[in-house]
Amino acid sequence: MNSLTKTSQFLSFSRLGGAILAGIVMAKMGLDLETIGKIELLFFLGKAATAFWSDALAKAILPYFPKLDKSGQKGFFSTATLLYIGLAILTWMILILFKEPILIHFLKVDSIPYYNAYVLFLAVNIPGLFLEQYYVIKEQPTKLLWYTLISYTLYPLYFLIPIYYEIDLVYIFRILTIIAALRLLWVFSIVSKEGWIINQPVLRKLLQLTTHFMAYILVAMMAEIIDGLIITQKYADPEVFAIFRYGARELPLTTALLSGLSMASVSKLSGNLKDHLPSYKQSLNRVLKITFPVAIILMLTSQWLFTYFFSPAFRESAMIFNTYLLILGTRVLMPGPLVMAKLESKYMFGVSIVELTLNVVLSLIFVQYWGIVGIAMGTVIANYVEKIAYFHLLKKKYNVSWKDTIDLNWFLAFWVCLHVVYVWVGIGG
């Protein structure tokens, strides 16, 4: 595993770890469940409004740049940056103009005092994410590491200061906006050295690829959004939303390791899939042997962890978290980067439609029997269907089997253990 992959994984882990620690700060510092619920509603809105296009743009940039010759690469970074900024401004305008219907009909609350401050932070923050793709493309792990340390390691502190000094919580988002603005200046300084040029062919191609990936990601995200909507519609209390959101997290270590591996691998796999597949499999097996034991331990201790690190009010979140841990079986197979490297965005979009439909149907059925845990179970099952469809394409079109990405014996042994523990803990709880 090269240094760029390790740094990318550390980036993902820091981002997720910072968010979890911020949640712990809010719970431990005595914020009431209703306030935490409203802040989680804002984070939910932010992801719904930006992740589908920002992730799509990142997925377009990483595999597209290596395919360009030197003349085609001219103005690539400035074009991508301006695209980020333009979409961020458009998002900010929509969220401000439609504030009232968003609060009343989407989030199901009368008001959130720091809504405007959060939306401004969102608009300033998103373009700075371009630095992640830039340093990966340029293969500069040291600079990516510094970016990670500055951007994410201090994240919980920005929540702690206003809460500790008992000042208006709007200052959380004002502090975050200042940090985001500094990161945006960082982007401007880098792109200025490259030269501010709009490469129209690159712009058209990025828009085309981003649109394809956007459709795929938007549909894939709709499952999470609809899960949230099912909760806000069925349970009017923001406290229930907070309990679900705190538990509705996959194993952070897994997400960090696999996100980092994906970010570092897509551009290489897009060049020659077969040549890089063995090292890709080796990296996935390493992740498999790390994450499954951790997941099993966390599942066994989840109720104590949620009670101790958050508060007794979040005890119910533990079973939701355990259910989301079952997604680990689909994550470590990880065919997505292989499909993405081949720019099979249309196929990914079609699969995401099927996954979304299945997820929604199962969630609506299961919530009637198992409550908010049933919504999580619907997500798990739909994820398995998605991975089966991806491997079907890879086998049929590129002669790549799921066994080419993972050690079968280790995978099956860990998979069985994880599910046995889940049933045992569920019965015991």
Describe this protein's structure:
It is a single chain. The chain has 429 residues and is an all-alpha fold. The chain has one domain. It has helices at 3-28, 33-64, 70-73, 76-97, 99-106, 115-125, 130-137, 141-152, 155-164, 170-194, 200-234, 238-247, 252-271, 273-309, 317-325, 328-331, 336-341, 345-370, 372-398, 408-428. Helix 4 (76-97) runs parallel beside helix 11 and helix 13 (252-271) packs antiparallel against helix 14. The model has no long low-confidence stretch (mean pLDDT 79).
Could you give a quick summary of the protein structure above?
This protein is mainly α and 429 residues long.
Question: Taking all residues together, what is the mean pLDDT?
Answer: 79
Overall geometric form: globular
Helical percentage: over 70%
**Run of helices and strands:** HHHHHHHHHHHHHHHHHHHH
Give the number of helices: 20
Q: How many domains is the backbone divided into?
A: 1
